[in-house]
Inverse folding.
């Protein structure tokens, strides 16, 4: 599981995470909602060790993410992350993009890496795009390629940082469908999202962040239908 204990994160004088306590159990889908600047994306970056923290602890299967002796490469093999931008290598085919990390980080042979990569591309609906270059793919297909690239590391956890925010509206659905598929397969996921229908229909729990604090967390039926926080009530009134 992923466990945060009194996590604090600052950028200079600006404190963006103000004592976050949170546990995500195996197989759980947690959606994190809130206004821009509330600390949602920073939370994911800290969980993955991409940003240092000033106080507290983040544990992934008991390993202290920010501990002095932690092997970050080994840890990140367990945590896949999908960003707002897909950041594919334009000079590599779709399959070569997916193969790269298993070959370099996991030290897999080309044949084994290719088999895993092709399987994950098929899983996200890109089995017929193996030889295509990123420029030949739509935005939705490129984001699904980014998901396949993360899955090729065979992670235990997936972090999604507003994975649909850079897409045209007509392409959002295909990426959300892929994320729904992962949830139904039992993948443990933390999803920072503005897609309220996804948060309501797919999540086990929804966490609302406001100005660096987790103001409310609970089942979607409670958090989104009968919110206690005044700030959450105002936020939902704007987005629903």
């Amino acid at each position: 599981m992923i466990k945060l204990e009194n996590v604090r994160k600052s950028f200079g004088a600006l404190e963006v995470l103000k004592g976050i306590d949170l546990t995500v159990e195996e197989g759980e889908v947690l959606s994190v909602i809130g206004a821009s600047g509330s600390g949602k994306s920073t939370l994911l970056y800290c969980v993955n060790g991409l940003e240092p923290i000033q106080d507290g602890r983040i544990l992934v299967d008991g390993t202290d993410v920010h501990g002095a002796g932690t092997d970050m490469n080994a840890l990140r093999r367990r945590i896949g992350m999908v960003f707002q931008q897909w950041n594919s290598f334009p000079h590599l085919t779709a399959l070569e993009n997916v193969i790269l990390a298993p070959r370099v980080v996991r030290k897999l042979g080309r044949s084994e890496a290719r088999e895993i990569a092709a399987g994950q591309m098929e899983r996200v609906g890109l089995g017929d795009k193996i030889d295509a270059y990123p420029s030949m793919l739509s935005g939705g297909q490129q984001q699904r390629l980014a998901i396949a690239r993360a899955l090729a590391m065979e992670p235990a956890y997936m972090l999604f940082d507003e994975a649909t925010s850079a897409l045209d509206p007509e392409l959002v659905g295909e990426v959300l469908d892929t994320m729904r598929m992962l949830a139904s397969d039992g993948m443990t996921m933390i999803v920072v999202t503005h897609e309220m229908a996804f948060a309501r229909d797919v999540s086990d729990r929804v966490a609302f962040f406001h100005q660096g604090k987790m103001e409310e967390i609970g089942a979607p039926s409670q958090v989104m239908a009968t919110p206690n926080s005044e700030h959450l009530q105002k936020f939902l009134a704007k987005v629903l």
Observations:
- The two ends are 31 Å apart (CA to CA).
- The chain has nine helices and ten strands.
- The first helix runs from residue 40 to 47.
- Residues 88-154 form one domain.
